[in-house]
Amino acid sequence: MNAGRLVILGATGDLTGRYLLPALCELLAGGCLPPDLDIIGVARDRWDDQEFRSHASARLDRHAGGESRSHRDALVRRLRYVAGDVADPAVLRTVAHGAAGPVVAYLALPPAVFAPAIAGLAAAGLGSGNRVVVEKPFGQDLASARDLNALLDRHFSESDVFRMDHFLGKQTVQNILGLRFANRLFAPLWNAEHVERVDIVWDETVALEGRAGYYDHTGALRDMIQNHLLQLLCLVAMERPGGLGEGPLRDAKVDVLRSVRRLQPQEVERHALRARYTAGAVGGRQIPDYAAEPGVDPARGTETFAHATLFVDNERWAGVPFGLRTGKALGRDCREVRIEFRPVERLPFGQADHPGPNVLTLAMDPDRLVVDLALNGAGDPFCLDPARWQLELAPQELSAYARLLLDVIDGDPALSIRGDEAEESWSIVEPILSAWGDGAAPLRHYPAGSEGPS
Ligand code: BG6
User: Fold this and answer.
1) What mean pLDDT is predicted for residues 20-25?
2) Predicted confidence (pLDDT) per residue in 113-172, tens digit
3) Which end of the chain is more exposed for a tag (fewer CB within 10 A), N or C?
4) What is the CATH number of the domain that holds 253?
5) Distance from the CA of 378 to the center of ligand 1, in angstroms?
């Protein structure tokens, strides 16, 4: 059933302005936003509808410049605003009053406010039968994720809970399933017998960009690896699901997460690395030392770069390392999944001639499929040269947030994270978090604009 009202809790924050409003505008422009869906923002700022609309309009100018002015204005005209505490049942009751269908409460809030807001929704009668969207990271650690799940369980049924991971709305991420399960070419090779290693890389040139309030309490491991990169690992490593509905797809991902070997405390230093950027330049732009950014407490030791090597201990993947790497303020953007295949045996050319392994790269943003091969090149026909087969993928029709928001409005949770998935993901990163918390591994440094720590 389509939602009747979308209530954005945290409507004046960065996430709403940067992702949600542009996604809503995109849906409106594409004719996918139900015309009778009310959209109400809630936040503490003592604004009226008009002030919120001017704020939203400025955010859309900045983050949805690709949409036409008339679509941006049409969305802004539909927005309403209620000032108040997002956890106050009286405020939430006012916001829900008169809704013509289920209310979707989108928690665009810092993780510390998730629990009070969920409790407030329940107290306002907006539990079961309505929907709630919880942004990532889902909690701060395994214990808080369990508490949140227990709270959600008490008031909502699982299919009404949307734990958001916008990576699942990316076309190329979804394409991992098509590539793997719809092509005989790759399916027989997709295992430890043929794959040497898998690298999942999300290197970003963006630095802190004013997000200290969130990021300095979160860090790269919680911000990216616990959720986005583990989801990519799931799609690469999972068995063929019985279907693409919410049950089979999420069951298959949970099976992978359960099979990921948990690191022992003494293994963390060898398998996980953390680092933080110092002053430098990215593409000609001066980036200050992370520790000197306003709002950062250097004593927290927050990492802006994390690398973890994990192993999926099942028959398919035994012994294959999965490297998960992400960092901010790096010299170049690189977002990709690389599958490196083992060398061929008994090469008739002499092993020394081989130009390198076969690598299948799924690059994102721009979306591309790249296959590195060794072929007989020009000149000596018995000499191998590297060759590259590259396929540009069509640009994504709907952005990731727009796609997932549409699922929420339609009530389809297949591409959101199930409660047990979130807990398994936390239990994978938990040994790393606690070892780092105990100072078990040094926090290294890298200059902004570099390739990261050596
Ligand atoms: C967000 C993280 O979830 O994902 C950001 O909080 C990160 O730190 C972003 O930059 C990366 O996603 P995308 O789609 O912008 O590449």
Assistant:
1) 98
2) 999 999 999 999 999 999 999 998 899 999 999 999 999 999 999 999 999 999 999 999
3) C
4) 3.30.360.10
5) 43
Pocket of ligand 1 (CB under 6 A): 204, 206, 223
Helix 142-155 vs helix 114-123: angle between axes, to the nearest 10 degrees? 10
- Among candidate residues 55, 166, 228, 271, the one labeled active-site is 228
Kindly give the distance from the C-alpha atom of residue 202 to the centroid of ligand 1, in angstroms, as a whole number: 9
Angstrom distances, CA of residue 269 to CA of 1, 199, 266, 436: 49, 19, 7, 9
Q: How many domains are there within the chain?
A: 2
Concerning whether 307 is annotated as a catalytic residue, the answer is no
In this structure, the answer to whether residues 113 and 190 fall within a common structural domain is: no
SS3 (DSSP) at 342: coil
Residue 343's domain spans which residues? 168-397+416-447
- In this prediction, residues 399-416 reach a mean pLDDT of 95
Looking at residue 352, its pLDDT comes to: 67
Q: 130 and 177, same structural domain?
A: no
> Residue 279 has what pLDDT?
98
CA distances from 159 to 164, 404, 419 (A): 13, 14, 10
182 and 293 share one domain: yes
Residues 127, 225, single domain; the answer is no
Q: Does residue 253 share a domain with residue 209?
A: yes
pLDDT digits (tens, 9 = 90+) for 60-87: 999 999 999 999 999 999 999 999 999 9
**Same domain membership, residue 328 and residue 194:** yes
Q: Residue 291 C-alpha to ligand 1 middle, in angstroms?
A: 21
- How is residue 130 annotated by DSSP? B
Which of 228, 332, 333, when mutated, tests ligand 1's pocket best, judged by the most ligand atoms within 8 Å of its CB?
A: 228
pLDDT above 90 (res 93): yes
